[in-house]
Amino acid sequence: MDSLKPTQQQMTIARKRLPIFEFLSDADLKQVLCFSSPSEANSFGLFPKIATFSTVVVDPETESIIGVKNCAGKAGEEMIFLKPINTKGRHPLDWICDVIATVPVEMRAQFLAAWEGMQNLKGERNKSRGYNSQELSEFPEPIVLLLLRVKFTQDVDAALRSGKLQSLQSLDKCLMQRIFQISMTVRDQAKKISRKGSSIITLLFGQVRQLRKLIKYAKISTYVATWEFWRSQLRYYVKDSGNAANIEEKYNSKENSITKTILSVRCGESVEIPYGFQYGSHRMLVQTDLTHEAYATAMSAFEAGKNRLVVVNGPVGTGKIEVLKDLANALGINCYLYKHCSSRKSDHSALISAVSRNPNMMFLFEGLDKEGAEVIQAITSANDEKDIATRTGLICVVGNLDKKEVKESLGSLPACATQMMTTPDLVRIYEVMLAIEGFTTPETVAVELNNFLVKARETFSEKSWYDYGLRTAKVLIKTAGAFLRSSRSIKDEAEAKKERKGLHDALCASILPSLVPADLTLASGQLHAQFPTFPPFPSNKNDTRGVEELMSMLSKSDAKKMTKLKGDVGTKFSMIQFSVMSKIRHGLLALSDSPKYLLHALSTLASLVGVNFSLINHDNLTTAELYGAMTEDGEWQRGVLAERMMSAANKDGAPTWIVLEGKMDQVKLQPLYSILDDNRKLFQENGSVVSLPKNANVVLISTPDEVAKWKPAAISRVGVVHFIDNESGRCSVM
Description:
Shape: globular
Strand order of the largest sheet: 8-9-10-7-11
């Protein structure tokens, strides 16, 4: 099949059979139609482009597709099909269409079986108004989240019907108790929470936010007005699902027809749409009051007479796209992001056709221009001429009115629902992150963390490498969780004190290393003011107490090795900070006016702690030589960095520092972004991907003047250690 190139006619047939193929380029579709196996489709990354799941699960013996996975890697969770899909001897178009059609059917069947099974449970669950973690563990993550959403809707409806405020307050208490139980489980197991567990905590916190706003509203409003407020939120209702006793019967029953609504999502007085039952892979967004407001605005576009068009406006970093992706996930539908709807008029008719042929989807248009606005107008005009049932899915335009060209383009769109996004409520986001890390007093600790970061922005000097954004906060919270779950906590301490100690140590380990001496003094004072019960962290790097404090953050074996360092205290201080930071972040920036001094210090440290020191001086390397490029003969020439990453993977787990020395401009920095963030992957121009192994760190050596030219996106991806400028400061090993 590989040798037969699909014709244009065959691609047209494929797009007619599976309308989602309208969004694939001709080049990609040609590759898809030549797949020899499902594994090849997984390697190509097909399914995230056309569906909500990440990969298919393949039986290696039969090559049958036996399920789907919501994300790649060990964190991914599988939904196994009741009936495998045979692929041997079949055209890829046939089994791909089967997979796309099977997923919602399987989701419906498994949800109905889970729902009815839960309804039949009696005893402690009914008293606690919820499901315990053991009952939920057997179901895939999307099913669990659906169960919790439907149950929450039922509980709030029942509490409001009772007419008693205490019923809502009791429900709030139950939700917080469930969050506490999950967080304590994380603490007891002393390991990171599963993806499913983090999603459950995120959803429960979102429900608590909804509930507390409802309680606040109920205290000052009439009974009718309170009901109206609740109806403005997303609510989930199961329709009569019959009496089939198990998944097999559900799978085969007429009630599981793709056209029959068995679960609907309501918002407002008149909007009710069927849940889509797609197996979502999008990681759940932390829900704030603004998130729920954005949901309601977007859902209002489904009202009769509306054109299903929503404009979400706001500056960069306010989560415009993420909140819409999260809504699509909450509705169980696919979401397609179309970036930069450009002036290529030849593409317009194809795009309009693609959108119109894919109802039950959400379409996000970003980077709108004048011609792009004409496309949106054409889509909405076509919608106006259709019956409501056959209209396209939700059309969402994402823009920033601060930009003149975007403002003019948005101004030419027809009347539509509009949502303004602002800076997210960071304290609410911190709360959820902390609970996921095992903190049982997340509300208190989140305020402490926010207070420190706000004070840092206000009082510390302005340095190009200082970063107090959400990415830094996320790393800081993960570090605090690791400290909390480690044996460093004293068992006799009160719970709240342990958790504040975890945050204190995380701030010392991840924020203070980046500071210049004057700011380190300010930070030390701020820490002592916020955490007066803990010994004050030294206000300068020449204080031997700082070395002792940092040594306590290392493992016993690493701390023992550090005792062999000799030299001035300031250099030892920075080297130990670097060693601690290397355990926290896989991307590091070592900063000094004397790069040669840094090279000596880091190579000494690497030899001491048993780390392979792999140096790349890239000043004399082009971007192509560093990352790889095609030769004139059309062959791929692997770059130096990819070679070192692959070499690190072959060192039997021995830790490796891949050290990049030299001036790093934006062109050279850009490909590093995907390595330095959670992906840990180098995406090469030939389509191949090289992963940074878990045992490796990428270390950038630079000067303050050079880093001043970097973008904030680069700074936020690295842990920074600012070394004392001391040319004579040398460390050696005893």
